[in-house]
């Protein structure tokens, strides 16, 4: 009990500084030190939050943005993961595709926005394409690295003990590559939100980025700040989820053993 | 050689010859017939002729890089000889019955100890039977209560014992050991040697132990093979009754003979 309390105290400590900052911000706004058209008070942002929440607009936009982010992630992630596996396991596949992929990797995917708008207009495909492309590389590179980094002595051990190719993959190669794959996953989640924000801000007719841009046109600065905060929150949420999965699947790893 | 050492030799050879009852030789476990192995044109092993009988404990000694690991890898079927052939006895038709244990334990860090042992039953047993056999063998190496741990929390000696359990759980007829105790401290080494001997006596498999440690070789083996420049330089029986006492004069006598051969004295 006291231990739980202690842990709670520890994590509460981390929230102390943001709380103080928030209170200071509110105070400064009320005292007129920060003009409302530069940065609205937290209470104003809170009000905007309630208003948008009740109108259903906020939920709808979050839903659309999340859906976009996840679909792009699934598409890009699946392709990246499969290619990473293929190139990690087969030298032929690696020689065939890796150089090309590494070359493409050097193009910042956001630089493709003008081209993507020309190809897809401001349709859903444009956003899906950008997010998928952004997510693809961290997943691909880290899956490949993870597989190449699996201890060859363990693979040899698996062979000696007569593991079939499938068993070898499931019991030795994949678990060995998993820490690296998780690094890629968390990195990809960051890129996923970043790409979506940029894409929605530039060209969209719905979603959080669109909401922020609309608000900017009508000078609703509290809504702009609110969208930014929600983006941050969603990003944090995705990262926490990934960390949680990581902790569960890497229990064996000394870095995750908390006994 | 001084007169003193000569008399010392004689005084030892006689009692040993009288008390040692040589065990009957069983069937052939494996036989290297004029085996040579090259890596990229460089001869690592040449003209290796070695017959080992079932249940024999053979130690292989040699300087670093002389080809001991290569010999074991050939035996375990991990590599093929460049020329010559390796014949397995009737009891050991396939390489599945040959297990190899390395200097590193090579445990899967992401599998609990018990699951690691069950790897040794791949293609032999599954499910509950495998689980039961795994726990039994863990008990034999003195780790009955550690089955649920991650390998990372075990000590070096304990990890090596898990590796031994994994190698033994499938009842190999030949166990090849490539310096399995090399990385352990002196005290743990002796403990592991005793464990190894006890299990070997109980299970009656053929053991081939590669080691740098001449004392270890004469303490454990029925027969010591010295490899020098890719050839068998000495093939010596150690006719000393078990249980053997560490650093006893008889063992010291054989140890000296091997060291002399190793350093061409
Ligand atoms: N796969 C390989 N390719 C090329 N050369 C090899 C290979 N394996 C072994 N060798 C060479 O063969 C020689 C013998 O190697 P081996 O590993 O059998 O020695 P060792 O007697 O086990 O030495 P140590 O006691 O240091 O373990 C070495 O010179 C080594 O460089
Ligand atoms: Mg070696």
UniProtKB/TrEMBL annotation, chain A:
The topology of this chain with respect to the membrane is: Multi-pass membrane protein
Gene Ontology cellular component list: plasma membrane
Protein name, as recorded: ABC transporter permease
For the ABC transmembrane type-1 domain, which residue ranges apply?
58-242
GO annotation terms (biological process): alkanesulfonate transmembrane transport
Instruction: Please give the chief subcellular localization of this protein.
Output: membrane
Q: Which UniProt keywords apply?
A: Cell membrane, Membrane, Transmembrane, Transmembrane helix, Transport
Subcellular location per UniProt equals: Cell membrane
Fetch the InterPro entries from UniProt. MetI-like, MetI-like_sf
Presence of the UniProt keyword Phosphoprotein in the record? no
Q: Which residues cross the membrane?
A: 70-92, 104-122, 128-147, 191-211, 218-234
Q: Report the protein's function.
A: Probably part of an ABC transporter complex. Probably responsible for the translocation of the substrate across the membrane.
Q: Which family does it belong to?
A: Belongs to the binding-protein-dependent transport system permease family.
TrEMBL record, chain B:
Matches recorded under SMART domains: AAA
Q: Which InterPro entries does the annotation name? A: AAA+_ATPase (IPR003593), ABC_transporter-like_ATP-bd (IPR003439), ABC_transporter-like_CS (IPR017871), ABC_transporter_ATP-bind (IPR050166), P-loop_NTPase (IPR027417)
Sample GO molecular function, one term = ATP binding
Return the protein name: Aliphatic sulfonate ABC transporter ATP-binding protein
The record's keywords, sorted A to Z, are: ATP-binding, Cell membrane, Membrane, Nucleotide-binding, Translocase, Transport
Recorded superkingdom: Bacteria
Q: Which family does it belong to?
A: Belongs to the ABC transporter superfamily.
Database matches in Pfam families: ABC_tran
What's the source species' lineage? Bacteria, Pseudomonadati, Pseudomonadota, Alphaproteobacteria, Hyphomicrobiales
- Organism, by scientific name, is Phyllobacterium brassicacearum
Residue ranges of domain ABC transporter in the record: 30-254
